[in-house]
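so my prof wants the structure for this chain in the tokens format not the other one, which i didnt know existed until like an hour ago. anyway here's the sequence
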Amino acid sequence: MALNPTDLFDVRSLLTDEERMIQDSVARFTDERVIPIIGDCFDQARFPAELVPEIAALGLFGSSLPEKYGCAGLNSVSYGLICQELERGDSGIRSFVSVQSSLCMYPIYAYGSEEQRERYLPRMARGEVIGCFGLTEPQGGSDPANMKTNARRDGDDWVINGAKMWITNGNLADVAIVWAQTDEGIQGFLIDKGTPGFAAQEVHKKMSLRASVTSALFFDNVRVPDSQRLPNVKGLKGPLGCLTQARYGITWGPIGAAISSYQCALEYSKSRILFNRPIAATQAVQLKLADMARRITLAQLLSLQLGRLKDAGAMQPAQVSLAKWNNVRMALDISREARDILGGAGITTEYPPIRHALNLESVITYEGTETVHQLVIGREVTGINAF
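here's what i got, hopefully its the right format
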């Protein structure tokens, strides 16, 4: 029996029936609703907001959170598969869901009060409230402890000043999870859209994640009551805990982008005739396709084991760093190589590799640059901090 070119080790057989059902459901959504429009959305720098109600109806927002809050209560592997299938469509769609789920709903659930959970989570699960995550600042990203945004107490309120940069969903968001320096350490605040002094400005002229909304956030004496502060965490462990959740999903997402690019190159190579034979018959192209299949297989096994560790409560942040580093680099290299196999046709968004390659330039940077994750592993294996 011939092997599946995109699943040479039959990783799918290691999934539960529920996990396969969830993957198939999101795959159909991606095939039927995302792929037909996403090339044009990328060209037009337009986020397909019309898909939000459908994403919510599939239960993809906060999918790993408890059903008590209107969420699906799925396991971590299922969430990973959701990310993989969404990013097979486009990194921007997966980023939108990742931010809503891992960077906004998760901190409200993990660090928020019960009143905050009940107020926000059910509406966010239904897609009625969209969130964004304000951590990165204009003067630096890899050193969040150096943030300049600050919050000071004023009676029963907090007054927040500062700015955040490169914020996915910023201009779409109804609520921003904003991290700020306080006299008691870094703390998180829920800032609703329309709060006086709070403004979002969309970033334009992007060559990456063009089907995604990226913004700068500004806070000019923004006043919020203490009830809008996340009460159950202080210090960097708060935002870093959120980033670990998001990075986990990112280890899966680029596998989808890689599969999309690889499948496109494979099909094209069989139909493109040069010197009286398909280019798939040449050793040069077969070597490239074989290497793509090898690297995708390794990434699939890496993320699956990571998901099983996460579901067992045994996942360590350094393991997430290793998988994020490996899998995003894998996907970026494959999308570039696939673009090369397509020749001149590969520079247009009629085919997905160039779009995935451009998107992955952002994915390899956000949620920790490749270099940061390499240094995390270096510290882990040597015991010496080189930051």
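also thought this was worth mentioning. DSSP finds ten helices and nine strands in the chain.
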